[in-house]
Write a structure and sequence with these properties.
- Belongs to the CD225/Dispanin family.
- The protein is of the alpha+beta class.
- Helices cover about 45% and strands about 10% of the residues.
- The protein is built from three helices and four strands; from the N terminus they run E-E-E-E-H-H-H.
- Strands 1-2-3-4 form a four-stranded antiparallel sheet, with no helix packed on it.
Length: about 160
């Protein structure tokens, strides 16, 4: 049994057809095959359609929960610090201003814990400076009132031995 076989060459390579508008042709993403109750299913991620072999297409929906971002930046209290530094109590106002700038640098670095700590320290120093400023103002006003009352009685000519006038 001697047979002569003809050898055929493989077909010549032909490049795919040229498409001048490749972005206008929609492409179907690859299907992901799973098995649901013995039937193969194919899910296409772009339209959430699930096809069960031999059944009617079913559309599934997905709920996406997007958490609200937390406040990333702590308040710096720079204006409050400048106010307390100028009008209330200079040393604590200056310290509060330094902590305000530290808060700003922590906010820019993304260090939320450091920014929160520095912001609270700045706010506390500002409150203490306001309190000291209020106490000093009350003491100064009461001193002026008592001095004016004392000066007023001495200037009228009443010096312990009687009033002349």
């Amino acid at each position: 049994m001697y047979t002569t076989e003809k050898h055929q060459h493989p077909p010549a390579y032909s490049p795919p057809a040229y498409n001048p508008y490749p972005s206008t042709i929609p492409r179907q993403p690859p299907a992901y095959e799973t098995v649901v109750s013995g039937h193969p299913t194919y899910q296409y991620p772009q339209n959430n359609a699930v096809l069960i072999h031999g059944a009617v297409p079913v559309v599934t929906t997905h709920t996406t929960v997007i958490p609200m971002p937390q406040q990333l930046y702590e308040p710096e209290h720079i204006g409050y610090s400048i106010f307390t530094m100028i009008w209330c109590f200079l040393p604590l106002g200056l310290a509060a201003l330094i902590f305000s700038f530290k808060t700003r640098s922590c906010n820019r670095r993304g260090d939320a814990a450091g920014a929160r700590k520095n912001s609270r320290t700045s706010l506390t120093l500002n409150h203490i400076s306001i309190g000291i400023g209020i106490l000093v103002t009350i003491a100064y006003v009461s001193f002026l009132i008592s001095y004016w009352a004392t000066w007023n009685t001495h200037s009228s000519g009443c010096y312990g031995t009687g009033c002349y006038g």
